[in-house]
Design brief:
By secondary structure, the chain is mainly beta. It has one domain (4-79): SH3 type barrels (Roll), CATH 2.30.30. Helix content is 12%, strand content 43%. The chain has one helix at 4-13, and strands at 27-32, 35-45, 48-50, 53-55, 58-63, 71-74, 78-79. Strands 6-5-2-1-7 form a 5-stranded antiparallel sheet. Strand 5 (58-63) and strand 6 form a beta hairpin. The longest helix has 10 residues, at 4-13. The protein is globular. The relative contact order is 0.23.
Length: 81
Amino acid sequence: MQSSKEAQFAALFGPLPAYSEYKRGEHVSYRAYGRKQSGIIVWVAAPQRIAGKQEPAMYIIENEAIAGFPDMVAQSDIIVE
C-alpha cells in the first residue's frame, strides 16, 4: 500500500520504473544551481515521451540545503564519488 506522499509522487511523475541506476532513499551528490548539491532520492521518474520528444529518467531529490519543491535531476548530473 502506498503512503499519501508516494501516491502524490506517482500522480505527478508516474510509476517507479522497473530499473534505475539509483534508488529511492539513496543519498546522492549532484550538480544544480551552478554548484554541488546533496540530497535524498524520493522518487524516480521513468523515461517517457513528452510532446513527441523522448525524455530520460529523472531523479526527484529532496535537497538538504534548500527546502521546497524537490529538484529534478538527470542521471548525468549525479556526481559519482
